[in-house]
Amino acid sequence: KSSNKHPSQTKVKQKFKKSPGESSIRLEKVGKKAIINNN
């Protein structure tokens, strides 16, 4: 049930399994953009 409620989380986990380095960098960039947009 949790996977259906949060499909985005499952996608992120799959990315980490494939390439944790690249996915982590992407998440950091997205987080920075979100912070800038919020401010």
From TrEMBL:
Which stretches does the entry tag as region Disordered?
1-39
Regions of compositional bias (Polar residues) in chain numbering: 1-11
This chain belongs to the protein called: 15633_t:CDS:1
According to its UniProt entry, this protein's organism is Racocetra fulgida
